[in-house]
Amino acid sequence: MNPSLVDQALKNRKPKDIAADLVPDLHTLLPKKGLRTELDSHDAELTRHTITKSNSKSIPPVTDNKRISVIMTKDDGVEELLVDTPGSIYSRSNALIPNWYRIGWTSFSNAKNPGGSLNIKATEKENDPLSEILPLVLFGEWYHNASALLLTGLAGYGLACLGGGLGSVLLFILFIASYYHTSVKRFRRNARDDIQRELAQLTFDDSEETVEWLNSFLKKFWVIFEPVISALVIENLDNYLNDYLPPYLDAIRLSTFTLGSKPFRIDSVKNFSNTDPDIVCMDWKVSFIPNDTHDLTEKELDYKVNPKVIMSVRFGKGRMGAGFPVLVEDMAFIGHLRMQIKFMSKFPYVKIVQASFLEKPKFDYVLKPLGSDSFGFDVNVIPGLQTFIREQVHHMLGPIMYSPNVLTLDMEKFFAGDFDLTSANGILAITVISTNSMRNISKLVEGPPDSYVRFYIDHGQELDRTNVCEASYSPKWNETRYVLLNNINCLLSMELRSFRPGLRDRRLGTASIDLSNLDGETQTEQDGLNLPLLRNGKPVADLRVDLRYLPVSKPIKHEDGTIEPAAESNSGVLKLIVHECRNLPQRSNTFASIAINGIEKMNTSTVKRTGSPKYEESYEMVVLDKTSLLVRIEIKDSSKDGELLGGFSAYAIDILRQQSKNGGWWDILEDDQCVGQVRIHLEWKPTIMTGLSDFAGGLKFDSPPIGVIRFTFWGARDLRNVEHVTNGKSDPYVRILSGSQIRGRTEVIDNNLNPEWGEIVYVPIHSIKEKLILEAMDWNARTRDKSLGIVEFDPNDIIIQHVGDQNMDPDVWYEPNEIAIDRWSRLYSIDRRSSKGDLHYSAEFLPAIALPKGCDPTRESIGDTVTKKRNSHPPSAATEPKPPLYSLQGHPIKYTPDDLIDLNSYPSGIFRLKIHEVQFSRPVHAYCQVIADSLLPLYKTSRARGMDLNFEETITAFIKEKDFSRVAIEIKPARSNEKDNYKLGHLIDSGTSIIRRIMKNKRMGKTFDEDEGTWFKLLDTEGPARIRLSLDYVPLSNFVLNPDESLDNQGLLSVQLVHARNLMAADKTGTSDPYVVFTVNGEKVYKSNVIKKELNPNWTGETFKVPIQSRVTASIRIEVFDWNQVKGHVPIGSGGVTLRGDSVESFQLNKVDIPLDGVSGVSGYVQLEFNWQPQLLINKKTQSSVLGRSKTYAHHDVNLEVAGPLVRNSTSSRVSDGYARYSSDIDEMGYKQSSDIDDMGFRRSSTENLALERIDSESVMSFDDNASSVPSVSNDYGFISNTTGRDGTVMFTLLEARGLRGVDKSGTSDPFVRVSVGKIRMYKTEYIPKTLTPVWNETFSVSISSEPYMFDIKVKDHNKLKASVELGQNRINIWDFIKPDIPGGEVANCWIPLYPTGSGELHIELHYSST
């Protein structure tokens, strides 16, 4: 650092800077450096790469599982060392004092230190054999007096025998007199002290003492310390106060704060003696009455200042807000407080402080809203207000520190920063990526700041900090730091600070996150967090971080008492302890240097003038790969400029294996000569770090996919029941994770611990290093789904990598191996501490098309023809380049006439989608999720804030059939998940249209990596919005889709009953009264109206829709009955039809004649008209999706591309995707039209540009971020007819419902029905608790007109304390059901579907009577 720069900075300091720098920083009293790794870098990418390599290696054994006892003989005696299995904590003295020293009273007494042992041998009393033999009566002061008498007699006898004279006798008498005088003086002093102590003790327990000496000290110290503590309050309390403001307040600023010039007083103290030796308990009576001036001198009265606090409170937001000052002054306080302090033997020597008010404290103040020093109105004079405020304060403080409640401060934890390896339960890996552009910091720094981020837990001591990013308003770190956690239920604070050389660093903003969600069992990571950095309640920037909790592996104790050893791992926490050395050169000044993989990590302190130095220092670190961890200990002489005396080197694995055998002693070598020995010890805590591998979010999916893994999930057995408390069973499903991204999942099976799925899920794979996690989950309606166990899947089990024979940059391609994977795998908890249940699945690899190096996947430029595998001969310069005919897998490649790979001829493949940017016309906090051929997202981006959201993230999605496939992008609020329906906007496009755009870009010479993206308009947004995307398509090599897996296999079947011919006569008149009952897969779904006295009936308007899960396996049966009013209905024929094959074609009306049989004498047939619409069906546990609402896969080729800047000041309200016009230069969505060029690159006619294009419908929804209801208006109802009838009255009966969604925690709902006409509520049923098949049987009547009469029917879930949740809805025209002109048409009994599709059905009955 340049000293001149520091001096200049000091000269330029402003007075406010100097005042701010005097405020102490409580987080840096005992700063920590955090945990380091063996790498010489905190780079996140390097960390992930190292862990990926470590996970691919086998785990070497460390030692046996036996407890080893080693006896070591030393110069000062015999010492027993106990070394546990790996993961145990080895305790060892950390003192530099020789053991034969005697230090402290504990070294002379048998009593124990109340604060705990210091683990120093010199402070412990040695065993005295004489004291064990002699009785206690031989010890004491009488022994001294008896010895004096005996000595006097012996001395007199000796003098007489030696012939001593009078002088020697007088000298001896003088000596005896002096001893007697001293002895009597000590006796009297001790007696006086004992009497005084006993007298004091009599009054000590019953009286209180004053501490005027302490009050006098506070009186003088207060005037010096009060400005500092006031500044500390302003610097810290003001910031934290604004971080947690209620929504109606914009900001609170403490502009004035002083506690006055008169300190608080301790009126009296009462001490309690009947406590433990390490505990002090006192009752304090404390008062703070600044206006009491009777004890102040005239000089003190002259400069007396009363306490005063002025807060600037601002209500509202932005320009709609208003601020006003609030003055609080003349504060007074009286309280009776009990303090209890527990001591310990190490710094800070106070372990726990407990405080509790024995009675409610009394306080008074003057509160003046809109007040000032001279004016204002004290609102406490309002009757009842002061009492109300006082009771509210008591109500808040009572549960915290009113007796018997106690406020406990753990001083040891505060100063230690929660940093203890012995009790650590896990490691928190914090990857700090970057911030967006900073704002609101102009008053704090001049120019771009040199910023860094530091971390602390629960507002404790600093644990670690990032490196400094110099001179940037948008700093980028991409560093991973590690913090040991003893308790996951804590608050992590991340503070952005500005580094200022020579000055105190400035806090720019703070972000906090509750870590309790990272429980290590159901969730271990939170990726892509965008945490708001706030200062004084104002946003400074968004900090992008990834968090991962890595639990420490521990032994598992089973119910039968057996103990399963801790799961081993190549990654974990290592503690290296350097104890001591021996046999070094005498009188040398030595220290030990610790180096890991050649990188110096730590130097011990120097021990002087000894050949047997004791260091007892340790170093903790996170080890990413212990198999390659090289430890080197070097002993150096500090008196000779760090001259190397010798060193010891070994791999950590070898040290862990051997340290129990040799007591930890290792030879120190110099030029292959032993110059001494060093004793070290390693402690190893294995940690599962799978979540930090290459594909854990850092590399995302930028690399091209190599293929797809086809998982088939057959079932599971003996799953863990996480709902046994509610007397239920788990609702399991399986999801596939790549890193933190959910790449696919199965359906939910209700209440089943042995589920059977039989579902197929395709997952794109990008590398053989990409580890996949198969996780069984329990579905919950409102709370987060719980993990039932995981299985790790290694793609290497089914993938073979081939490498070409080129010397430089060889070709690489992948093929499936010949080993079929079909297995039962054990399900383990995320922390690997327990296991429960098994998962049955199979997997196979489907490779993507692979081309020789230098060939673009869609535009080939290589010269010679590639035969099977590849042609190794290079083309000559004279020949014209020709595309290869075969892929590296040996399959033919299909081309267009202009030598592009014909992507349209490959129906299945992998879409690559890069989301560059999203622009809104208002600030949002959101993320994007991608959905492809499913109802649930397969990728979620990180969260971003603002009007311009920059993501730059690449996503891959498998497309089964491009002709039927659709891809959707939803933009959702940051606080929502897949269970919330609300979206800020979305975009849907078909597979065919996307491929046409890709081909168009290829013809223009654009590649995926170089493409800056194309703007597309977003639908269903509030105001103009758009998204910028890049697209690519990687076809699969030689893949044929099974018909059962086709997207055409699932959808909605529309059935219209047309007519019947030549029916059997069942009545005496030679006719019948026929009606038809439809059954799908054994379930009755529809009943037609009765046609009286007809053998060739024609039906009108007899149409219904039924969802079909599998068209291949579905069966439709019809039964024709003759209606009888008195006797039972008579069957007159039945028949069936299958939906497979060409009998029913998609998107076309198919008339089918079904011949009747099943009854003797039956004849004739029934004609039906089918309309098959492929569609993803939503079940009751799948929330609404844009791909599950639209009625068809057919796409009408609407050009959604836009160009030009986004017009943010558009006056349009929420943009809905109904009919849109694209004729003018600026369309109704606020965009400038790109051109009249279609997707194929041809010019579109003006007539086509003026055409009204139909876009897939999407609903208009609430803008509440917490909204969880289904849309209030939806086009999912299908076509609403304009059928009319006759004036009359309808008896409307709500019978029952089925297939409803369960939205309560129990997996059920409390449904009720509300029927409205327009805005008028007509009827509301009672709610039926805890059911998905409610039965109401409630009836109401309503008068209707002959015009189209619409009923809005909504089924809702009842909640007592919050708003009801909509389960489904429909809108019907009553005249579509009531046919007054048809015999029997006055009655209708039917099931109507609830939308969105999959929300269930409602059974209604209608009775019409004319007026």
Structural features, described:
Helix content is 13%, strand content 37%. It is mainly beta and 1411 residues long. The strands form 17 sheets. Strands 4, 5, 6, 7, 8, 9, 10 and 11 form an 8-stranded antiparallel β-sheet that branches. A hairpin with an 8-residue loop joins β36 and β37. α5 (142-162) packs antiparallel against α6 (166-204). It is globular, with a radius of gyration of 42 Å. Mean pLDDT is 77; it is low at 1-7, 13-20, 64-95, 417-422, 694-699, 856-879, 1189-1198 and 1210-1279.
Topology at a glance:
Elements: H1 3-11, H2 15-21, E1 36-37, H3 44-55, E2 68-74, E3 77-83, H4 129-133, H5 142-162, H6 166-204, H7 212-243, E4 249-258, E5 265-272, E6 279-288, H8 298-302, E7 308-315, E8 322-343, E9 350-357, E10 362-369, H9 385-401, E11 407-410, H10 411-416, E12 426-435, E13 451-457, E14 462-465, E15 476-485, E16 491-498, E17 506-514, E18 525-535, E19 538-551, E20 556-557, E21 563-564, E22 572-582, E23 590-596, E24 599-603, E25 614-623, E26 630-637, E27 643-651, H11 652-658, E28 665-670, E29 673-686, E30 707-717, E31 732-738, E32 741-745, E33 756-765, E34 772-778, E35 786-793, E36 799-803, E37 812-816, E38 821-828, E39 835-847, E40 909-932, E41 939-940, E42 944-959, E43 966-973, E44 985-990, H12 991-1003, E45 1014-1017, E46 1021-1022, E47 1025-1035, E48 1051-1061, E49 1074-1080, E50 1083-1087, E51 1103-1108, E52 1115-1122, E53 1130-1138, E54 1149-1155, E55 1165-1174, H13 1186-1189, E56 1214-1215, E57 1219-1220, H14 1246-1249, E58 1253-1254, E59 1288-1298, E60 1311-1317, E61 1320-1324, E62 1335-1344, E63 1350-1357, E64 1365-1373, E65 1387-1393, E66 1401-1410
Parallel strand pairs: 1-25
Antiparallel strand pairs: 2-3, 4-7, 5-6, 6-8, 7-8, 8-9, 8-10, 9-11, 12-15, 12-19, 13-14, 13-16, 16-17, 18-19, 20-21, 22-25, 22-29, 23-24, 23-26, 26-27, 28-29, 30-33, 30-39, 31-32, 31-34, 34-35, 36-37, 38-39, 40-41, 40-42, 40-43, 40-47, 43-44, 45-47, 46-56, 48-51, 48-55, 49-50, 49-52, 52-53, ...
Helix pairs in contact: 5-6
